[in-house]
Write a structure and sequence with these properties.
Blueprint lengths: L1 H16 L20 E8 L8 E5 L5 E5 L4 E7 L2 E8 L5 E5 L8 E3 L8 E10 L2 E4 L12 H15 L1
Parallel strand pairs: 1-8, 6-9
Antiparallel strand pairs: 1-4, 2-3, 2-5, 5-6, 5-7, 8-9
Helix pairs in contact: 1-2
Length: 162
């Protein structure tokens, strides 16, 4: 039941945030040969360089991306238009924690970005228990959600995690 509610809320959020009238968007273009827009997510670990070995990014479409952490830094390409979970793993692929954005987001909503944006740099990630908090909050800047949209997304996030 919780999983169904979570999937329904994520779907509603995704459809509400789509640019329905923007014909220039790669996802709305009828040209089937055009590739999906990619965004590069970057970050670094200061205090836990030796422990965090990999970053795993996944979505509800069973897509995932894995990046090795090199010298405390990572860079990973993600498709625009999806909600992502981001996990941090050690060298044995055991979970050390997950990304938590400011405003208490446990997921990374990559459905509304500036058309010219190609990279989001989270800055330094600080571990607090099993959560990793970035020094740069992309909500409202790189991820162009209004305050009311952020509140709605946070509400859905709270329902989904309960």
């Amino acid at each position: 039941m919780k999983k169904t509610i979570f999937l329904l809320l994520i779907s509603m959020t995704y459809f509400m945030s789509c640019k329905k009238d923007n014909d220039k968007s790669p996802l709305n273009n009828s040209n089937n040969n055009q590739t999906e827009k990619k965004i590069t997510l970057k970050g670094n670990f200061l205090s836990m360089k030796s422990e965090v070995a990999k970053v795993l990014v996944f979505n509800l479409n069973k897509q995932y991306y894995l990046s090795n952490v090199v010298n405390g830094q990572f860079s990973i390409d993600m498709n625009f238009g999806k909600m992502y979970g981001i996990l941090f793993l050690n060298s044995s692929n055991q979970m050390l924690g997950y990304l938590k954005l400011h405003n208490d987001f446990d997921f990374f909503p990559l459905t509304k970005v500036n058309d010219t944006l190609s990279t989001i740099n989270l800055g330094s990630l600080n571990a607090q228990g099993n959560t990793f908090i970035p020094s740069y909050n992309p909500l409202g800047v790189s991820l162009i959600y209004t305050n009311s949209e952020q509140q709605m997304l946070a509400m859905f996030d709270d329902v989904a995690s309960s």
